[in-house]
Amino acid sequence: MDADADDDDDDDDDGPDGSPADFFENTSSSVVFLLSVIFNVSLQTGEIPEIWKLASVTPIFKKGPPSNPANYRPISLTCISCKLLEVGVKEAILTHLLTHELINKHQHGFYQ
Fold first, then answer.
1. What is the pLDDT of residue 110?
2. Which residue from 23, 61, 80, 103 has the least number of CB within 10 angstroms?
3. Does a structural domain hold residue 111?
4. Could you give the number of structural domains in the chain?
5. How far apart are CA 14 and CA 22, in angstroms?
6. pTM for the complete prediction?
7. How far, in Å, are 26, 36, 56, 57, 97 from residue 43 at the CA level?
8. 89 lies in a domain?
9. In terms of residue numbers, what domain contains 18?
10. HEC states along 4-72?
11. For residues 31 and 24, is the Cβ–Cβ distance under 8 A?
């Protein structure tokens, strides 16, 4: 098996848009403005790009006979751009809730 074929296995980790995580890690300073524009438009319109609504579902083997489909669990790989937006929204909501003391101290698991 040749080395280039092994590198192609990483494509299985990409979401439905085909953008690998290392793309965002390696180009973060270059794409941050473009992503912020997309994020702001999404937040203002309440809509996200259609591709962000898709997921690549991959079966992951748990245990037992591999021939039994019940021995697999599904993993949904979604677009990293959408995950980044979700993290930003979560942080903004959490900051608001904590700043205004809207989370009961017994709900600590909510923001972990």
1. 59
2. 61
3. no
4. 1
5. 10
6. 0.73
7. 26, 10, 24, 27, 19
8. no
9. 3-81
10. HHHHHHHHHHCCCCCCCHHHHHHHHHHHHHHHHHHHHHHHHHCCCCHHHHCCEEEEEECCCCCCCHHHE
11. yes
Integer-rounded Cα radius of gyration of the chain: 19
Kindly state whether residue 58 falls inside one of the protein's structural domains: yes
- Return the amino acid letter for 10: D
| Cβ–Cβ < 8 Å for 72, 62 | yes
Q: What is the pLDDT of residues 27-60, one digit of tens each?
A: 888 899 999 999 999 999 999 999 999 999 999 9
pLDDT at 2 over 50: no
Q: Report yes or no on 45 lying in a domain.
A: yes
Per residue in 67-91, pLDDT tens? 999 999 999 999 999 999 999 999 9
State residue 75 phi and psi, 5-degree precision.
-120, 130
Residue 19 pLDDT: 86
Cβ burial, residue 67 (10 Å; 0-12/13-18/19+): exposed
Q: Of 51, 48, 59, which is closest to residue 78 (Cα–Cα)?
A: 51
